[in-house]
Amino acid sequence: METRKIKLGADHPDTLASMADLALTYMNQRQWLEAEKLLVQVMETRKIKLGADHPDTLESMSNLACTFKDRGFTSRAISLMEECCKSGSAVFGPQHPNMISSRKALKTWQIEALGIQEQEES
Fold first, then answer.
1. pTM as predicted
2. Three-state secondary structure readout of 52-74
3. Domains of the chain, first to last
4. Least CB-packed of 10, 59, 110, 115 within 10 Å?
């Protein structure tokens, strides 16, 4: 990744792919803060370079939403996944496997959040 940053530049698609792969490794190791830092950088750079509706940008958005959820930032996760689902359905279509899994995660998170709110109100 560092070599790609030097040789290709920090905003090159191959560099961003390496950064996203490292972020996924961090996610698998439950190193949420490290994953979040990289995913924010990757997502923001992809938005600028590729556009907000590009499949790679949407993938980064979904991964970042999952990281937010795993860190306990449920409302941020829900908000970002809603944005991802809205844009992704327009790009991929509602029956695309990525959209089905993203909507499923979103629905699960929303139900969990409602349950937490109900417990707090009791």
1. 0.87
2. CCCHHHHHHHHHHHHHHHHCCCH
3. 2-121 (1.25.40.10)
4. 115
